[in-house]
Design a protein that fits this description.
742 residues, alpha/beta, Rossmann fold, eight-stranded mixed beta sheet, 8 strands, 60% helix, transit peptide, Haem-binding uptake Tiki superfamily ChaN domain-containing protein, chloroplast, RETICULATA-related, membrane
């Protein structure tokens, strides 16, 4: 560092610079003083002429020597060094002060930067929390629900202004993603409530109200999770695992847990005997008072949405349904009383999140559930209803009540449900360069209803890249529905047909041997008929993806709907395992065998008529074109109707039982035991189907021969015997002539 000094003019008088000398210098002679003064004056002029003053280690050493009177040559160097030290002192002081100030500021920055690191981390965490982890739809708008993209701040603002937030979860088929969404919403609301110093509570319908004391002990950490789990033995095994994360989070963060469910004893009594089965004290606590409009479970149509009122018109309402309605009334009333009490306890700024079934909160304060029961004491704007992962989205028309305020979907959940983002659909169509008008009618209808997922639409565009498949998907709805559900459907069909044709020809040759080419008409007929049957055995049970089923359900007669419900209640095969919540008895499994046999019999009857009729038609054409060749054929033509009936019975009994065993035991039960060994499972299925086709073909040949459907012409025995006698006579006559000649 080189500080600069401004040089003064020679005409300007030099300022007097005082300095202190040592004691020895003060006692010097007057001559020496004059000499020193002259020297001082000379040195001052010399210093003024200098434009720069250089600070160096040598100068510092000289200054230090001036301060040390015992040093060598002290008397000679002291005046010069002292003057330089005095001149440089202001600059050194200024530099030192600047350095000290810089060091002090650096220390302050270090001290302040330490607490800013957590703030940066908190900011990053907040940004991570704002990342879209779910899909939200505004269900209060007119028309179809509106997807909310980056404007989620308005959603959270509306939730923060509410006193009660209802989270309606799936009831019939519980979804694990609902618990993840609940935890996500609770975390975000807790963070925002903490910033505004609002008290947050969480009410769970899963816990009956008589378990409030164990919940309090769990919150106070007097009992652990295993002890609390012992109070929920009536839950399914997996339910505790789903609720455990949100319970642990509330315990760690201090969110108060509220048990708002109906006690099991009360609920079972009402389900068995109705409200009148309760005692007077129980009725006062858990049943709504008479005249409230909610006692019987039937409310006026004016308070219910038109969509809701038309959904259950065809459902019979028997005594069990009446008791179920009463149980629902008791559940909602007891829940509303607990909610009201906790809203009062939470104060004017408190917030309560209620996790309950979706049926208890649909249509909000204008429905018949919990929000409607407390709407007289809590304003409508203070209640917000959120449905978690609803299976359907309804298009709201003007004058209809919205089903909820928001529809909340988990982003981690694959798009397997029937409501999808229209913006994503538009993105897929734009990427493929397709227009909506160019799509088949069922796809257009499915997009309008919100049934087509982006993945399915992308699969459809991928299939259009192949000319043959594109033609099939556009012209035939059946192929389109099966290819969209299973893009490898044609591969499976080709493999099954290859197995069928190969094994049929091998079995035909093994059974007919030297007559194989003489009975070629029978071989071709059986092969074609078997191929048609195998085609339908793959076609009928193949999964389909239809987008018109929901629209057709509204137009279908009641008797057809009842028949479809009956057929849907039986298993696919007699050996299928019971799924969760369904218990098939022996009658259901027998019905499965009978229904499967009827399907195969109908397929066999129709395919046999077509195959035999085609064969006979070809035979007639050959006879017309070349009568000589046809007269040499010794195969008897098969009767069309008789062959169709026998073949239908054969498929309905023999083939049906074989398919039941293969599908139920080999491909269902045994394959599940070796699910990790994919190659072994595929080989087992291939071998089983190959043996089935080969053995079935041989069985049919034996049956057709024994019933006279496939026989050959033979010469009459009379003509054969007469010819033999004539030959014998000729031989005897020739022998007699030879003897005479001898």
């Amino acid at each position: 560092m080189k500080p600069h000094t401004q040089a003064s003019s020679f005409a300007t008088p030099l300022p007097h610079v005082p300095f202190f000398r040592a004691t020895a210098s003060s006692r010097a002679a007057p001559a020496q003083s004059l000499h020193a003064a002259a020297a001082n004056e000379f040195r001052c002029i010399w210093t003024a002429k200098r434009r720069r003053v250089h600070l160096s280690v040598r100068h510092s050493t000289r200054v230090a020597a001036d301060l040390n009177p015992g040093g060598s040559n002290g008397d000679e160097s002291r005046p010069r060094s002292s003057r330089r030290g005095v001149l440089m002192a202001p600059f050194l002081a200024a530099g030192a002060s600047i350095l000290l100030a810089a060091v002090a500021r650096a220390e302050d920055k270090v001290v302040e930067s330490a607490p800013t690191a957590p703030k940066l981390e908190e900011t990053k965490k907040e940004e991570e929390e704002e990342v879209i982890t779910s899909r939200i739809y505004d269900a209060a708008v007119i028309g179809e629900p509106l997807a909310i993209g980056k404007e989620k701040g308005k959603v959270w603002e509306k939730l923060m202004n509410a006193r009660v937030v209802y989270l309606g979860e799936a009831e019939q088929v519980p979804v694990r993603d609902d618990r993840e969404l609940e935890l996500e919403i609770v975390k975000n609301l807790h963070r925002r409530c903490s910033e505004k110093e609002k008290k947050l509570s969480l009410a769970l319908e899963a816990f009956p109200s008589n378990l409030q004391e164990p919940l309090n002990q769990y919150m106070d950490k007097k009992i652990d999770g295993d002890t609390l789990k012992s109070y929920t033995l009536h839950w399914p095994p997996q339910r505790w695992q789903e609720y455990e994360p949100i319970l642990s989070y509330c315990r760690e963060t201090g969110i108060r847990l509220v048990a708002c469910g109906t006690p099991l004893k009360i609920l079972r009594t009402v389900q068995a005997e109705g409200i009148r089965g309760l005692t007077k004290a129980e009725r006062k606590l858990y049943a709504p008072p008479a005249g409230s409009g909610f006692v019987s479970g039937f409310t006026s149509i004016s308070r219910r949405s038109s969509v809701d009122s038309t959904q259950n018109l065809s459902i019979p309402f028997g005594p069990s349904s009446y008791l179920s309605a009463q149980a629902k009334v008791v559940e909602e009333y007891s829940m509303s009383q607990v909610i009201l009490q906790n809203v009062v306890d939470g104060g004017a700024t408190g917030m309560l999140i209620v996790v309950t079934g979706a049926s208890h909160v649909t249509y909000g304060s204008r429905g018949t559930g919990v929000p409607a029961r407390i709407s007289g004491k809590i304003q409508k704007k203070n209640q917000v209803v959120i449905l978690l992962d609803p299976e359907r989205q309804f298009i709201r028309r003007e004058g209809e009540v919205p089903v909820a305020d928001f529809l909340w979907y988990s982003a981690a959940r694959p798009c397997s449900r029937n409501c999808f983002d229209r913006a994503e659909i538009a993105r897929v169509m734009n990427a493929a360069g397709q227009r909506r008008d160019a799509l088949p009618q069922d796809l257009q209808k499915g997009i309008d209803l919100g049934l087509v997922s982006p993945e399915v639409l992308q699969n459809f565009f991928d299939l259009e890249q192949y000319p043959l498949i594109s033609e099939l998907t556009h012209r035939f709805q059946g192929f389109r529905e099966r290819l969209l559900a299973d893009p490898k459907f044609l591969h499976r069909l080709a493999i099954e047909e290859a197995i069928s044709i190969t094994t049929t020809l091998l079995a035909q040759y093994e059974k007919r041997k030297e007559n194989f080419f003489q009975e070629l008409d029978y071989v071709i007929t059986d092969t074609v008929r078997g191929s048609v049957v195998d085609f339908f055995t793959v076609w009928l049970p193949a999964p389909t993806l239809s987008f018109l089923s929901y629209a057709d359900e509204m137009k279908a007669p009641d008797n057809i709907g009842s028949l479809m419900g009956l057929l849907g209640s039986i298993p696919d095969n007699a050996f299928q395992k019971n799924p969760a919540g369904i218990n098939w008895n022996l009658n259901h499994r027998i019905a499965s065998v009978v229904f499967g046999g009827l399907k195969l019999a109908s397929v066999g009857f129709i395919s046999s008529i077509g195959a035999v009729a085609s064969s006979n038609s070809l035979y007639g054409i050959r006879k017309f074109l070349n009568p000589a060749v046809v007269t040499e054929q010794r195969n008897i033509r098969s009767p069309i109707l008789k062959t169709a009936v026998i073949y239908a019975c054969f498929l309905g009994i023999s083939a049906n039982l074989r398919y039941q065993i293969i599908a139920g035991i080999v491909e269902h039960r045994i394959s599940e035991q070796f699910a990790s060994q994919t190659f072994f499972v595929n080989m087992l299925s291939f071998v089983a189907r190959t043996v089935n086709s080969y053995w079935g073909t041989q069985q049919w040949i034996d049956l057709a021969r024994s019933t006279g459907l496939q026989v050959r012409k033979t010469e009459s025995p009379t003509s054969d015997s007469s010819n033999g006698a004539a030959i014998l006579c000729n031989e005897t006559e020739e022998a007699t002539i030879d003897e005479i000649e001898k």
